[in-house]
Write a structure and sequence with these properties.
The chain is built from 1 helix and 4 strands; from the N terminus they run βββαβ. By secondary structure, the protein is α+β, with helices and mostly antiparallel strands. A 4-stranded antiparallel β-sheet has the order 3-2-1-4, covered by helices on one side. β2 and β3 form a beta hairpin. The radius of gyration is 13 Å and the shape is elongated. It starts with a strand and ends with a strand. The relative contact order is 0.30.
């Protein structure tokens, strides 16, 4: 099992997004999640990130170096896969 540092951006709800929070992890292409609360959104983001990382491993694709380096200018979550 490897430990990764997942930097994320959490966007406040907007009318155009159905008043849901949006979180994205820029280092993982397509890694986005929506939720009713910040906590729910970040938990969803972790699930999406876990799936993307597992698929990358399965397909033999590299894991972005940004996930391996600690320290983040935004928010960050620790993810074990």
């Amino acid at each position: 099992m490897a430990i990764y540092q997942l930097d994320y951006i959490l966007h406040e709800p907007e009318e155009s997004e159905g008043r849901m929070y949006l979180a994205e992890a820029p280092a993982l292409q397509g890694c986005m999640a929506w939720g009713d609360t910040p906590e729910e959104t970040l938990l969803e983001l972790l699930d999406v990130a876990r799936m993307i990382i597992e698929l990358r491993k399965e397909w033999g694709e590299p894991i972005p170096a940004e996930l391996l380096a600690p320290g983040a200018p935004r928010g960050s979550l620790t993810l074990a896969v």
